[in-house]
Amino acid sequence: MKQNAPSLDKGNVVISVHGLVKSFAGVDVLKGLDLDVYKGENLVVLGRSGTGKSVLIKIIAGLLTQDAGAVSVFGNEVSQLNRKELQDYRRKIGFSFQNSALYDSMTVRQNLEFPLVRNKRNLSSKEVKEAVDNVLQSVGLPDAINKMPSELSGGQQKRIGIARTLILHPEIMLYDEPTAGLDPITCVEINNLINKVQKEYGATSIIITHDLTCAKETGDYVAVLYEGKFVEQGTFDDVFKTKDEIVKQFYDYNFTTNK
Predict the structure, then answer these.
(1) Can you give the pTM of this predicted structure?
(2) Per-residue DSSP letter, 171
(3) How far is CA 250 from CA 32, 84, 188, 228, 240, in A?
């Protein structure tokens, strides 16, 4: 169970999702989702592959537009933002992609400098260097600064990917399957890093995963997504006290059959 969860500001809803519907080629992927995420909260969207988890966070990030319903972030409806407003909004979001999305031809230093120089053109060389050094220290990889992505392990690439989002001090973090494909020890490191980001940066985060250990260790609140709908919401312990067979089967697969 997650330890030392911060005191959440339940009076400050950062992300509000109501009646969210999305279809592709006539197939309903999201079927009327309702969800509120509070300032400083780590919210986990838990579900099997193909349940619409990635579609949800892409809509929140403004990368996709819903067919019906509303997604309000910082009090603004995302789908109604104009081009400039959307650009400004996305600067407040850190998106940690499943494959880390590092530039293979750039060193770690260059990967981290790129978003900083692109978005904050008035920084001096000294300020850029300090920002890179600080964020590498935050993710525990200061010695990786001159390495190429190909020289890093999968877990190290994930951490550098997170560092690249943190360098802009985002107000919202979106994690797409942060522990997918990693060994158990590295998964622990990534889970600890997600909690560290919450504590040190005060970020409001949505973590999408099918990994129950990740959900248990990082989530202040868990929403279980199944066939386009949330079937259970609450703390991890509350969610898995349910008698719902769909949720119980998910728990048994992760914590019983895999032992």
Answers:
(1) 0.89
(2) S
(3) 22, 42, 20, 16, 9
**Ranges of each domain in the chain:** 104-169
Q: Which two tokens stand for residue 139?
A: 């993710």
Residues 103 and 112: their CA atoms lie apart, in Å, by 10
Measure Cα distances from 102 to 148, 169, 178, 241, 250 in Å: 10, 18, 14, 40, 32
Under 8 Å between Cβ of 102 and 160: yes
**Buried (b) or exposed (e) across 100-116, using 16+ Cβ within 10 A?**
bebeeeebbbbbbbeeb
* pLDDT tens digit sequence for 109-145: 999 999 888 888 788 999 999 999 999 999 999 999 9
Q: Which helix (H) or strand (E) holds 47?
A: none
What 3-state DSSP class applies to 237? Answer: helix
- Which among 73, 46, 50 is positioned nearest to 230, based on CA atoms? 46
**pLDDT of 16-25, one tens digit each?**
999 999 999 9
- The residues that bridge with 45 in the sheet, in sequence order, are 208, 223
